[in-house]
Amino acid sequence: MSIFAGARKCDLKILAEELGETVNDSHKLKDLKKIILASKEYDEESAKKWMNTIINERKEREEIAEQKRQDEVAERRHQEELAERRR
Hints:
The protein has helices at about 10-20, 30-40, 45-85. The chain has about 90 residues and is mainly α. The model has no long low-confidence stretch (mean pLDDT about 95).
């Protein structure tokens, strides 16, 4: 399995930076992969661990943001119901 499985561009950018490479938003996914694999700091086992950590942290942030959004929607609905009852 590729170390890049499930990775997004933002994940690859972070890994490349962790490896000491200079990257920017104009780099495409395939370019980031090449930069990572060509890095003198690249070690497959370490890169896999880093990539898994980076992906898991991103997913956790996304889940927290989604839960916050759902909580805000629920609170808005609750406030609307209360306002409706007062009429």
